[in-house]
Amino acid sequence: MMNNSGGNSEALAAHDWAGEAGARWLGQLDRFESMIEPIGEALLARAAYAAGERVVDIGCGGGWTTRRIAAAVGNTGLALGLDLSPDLVAAASERARRTGLANIRFVQGDAATAMPEEAPFDRLFSRFGTMFFPKPYRAFANLRRMLRAGGRLDIAVWAPITDNPWQRNVMATIRRHIDFPAPQPREPGPFALGEQDYVTDLLQSAGFSDIAFDAWNGDQRVGGPGSDPESATRFVLDGMQIGDIVRASGEDTRAAIHRSLVELFERNRDGEGVHMAAKAWLVRARA
């Protein structure tokens, strides 16, 4: 069953974080957070924040990483979360308020062009928040301007899709029903920064140096720990970017895709939920 649906490539490119995409992420927030928490933990450990540091968290989402940073830098430091989605900024602000942290703030804005009033910062952090810039060279130059001279950048980005079966297998399953182009290297999207040479060039062009990569390899719990094939399928179709193209298809095609994803996840589950292999780069650089 194949449906050549016009506009699929546009749907993949036009992921509206400030609008519907951000709202859908909010609707799946706890699942997203628990799913990528191990990578966030690894990046936070690598960053090793110290008391008194001022940190900006790019693409902070619901603010889990920002809250962890705020706790690490203490009352003499600052953690500022920046996100394009007003819905996520509101949710992050409320969650931080409930913790009682006084050294944390959230701002809605586009990290490609925004300059928080607290800049320059000592540190810049981002867990999967830097892969969607339409003009990445300009965006990374702006990230560099957020940092003081000698400040440090720590970001996590997905390695190439070929190294990420959790996403590659999902896309292959959907492509059995809908004809859409494979994501191209360097195009804005989850795997835009998979090539180390490209990331190095982006950072060096922006004025960063001392660039280093560590690989994170592990299981991606699709839909979060404890997911089952049905809940993992709903998570993919309701929250992830690839769901955008499925929503543009007919009802019969959507139903067939749903069934195929459930079957895929049935083959990749254990007692702790649905899982497939994943790989990310943990990138460090100096301003």
Low-confidence stretches: 1-15
Strand content: 15-25%
CATH architecture: 3-Layer(aba) Sandwich
Query: Helix/strand/pairing class, anyone?
Result: alpha/beta
What can you tell me about this protein's structure?
This protein has a single domain, classed as Vaccinia Virus protein VP39 (Rossmann fold), CATH 3.40.50. Strand 2, helix 5 and strand 3 form a beta-alpha-beta unit. It is built from eleven helices and eight strands. Strands 1, 2, 3, 4, 5, 6, 7 and 8 form an eight-stranded mixed β-sheet that branches. Mean pLDDT is 91; it is low at 1-15. The protein is globular. The longest helix is centred in the N-terminal third of the chain and has 19 residues, at 29-47. Helix 2 packs parallel to helix 5. The chain is an alpha/beta fold.
Give the gist of this structure.
This protein is of the alpha/beta class. 42% of the residues lie in helices and 22% in strands. It has one domain (8-286): Vaccinia Virus protein VP39 (Rossmann fold), CATH 3.40.50.
Layout: helices, strands, pairs:
Layout: H1 8-13, H2 20-27, H3 29-47, E1 54-58, H4 64-73, E2 78-83, H5 86-99, E3 104-108, E4 121-127, H6 136-145, E5 147-158, H7 165-175, H8 196-206, E6 209-221, H9 229-239, H10 243-247, H11 251-266, E7 269-270, E8 273-286
Parallel strand pairs: 1-2, 1-4, 2-3, 4-5
Antiparallel strand pairs: 5-8, 6-8, 7-8
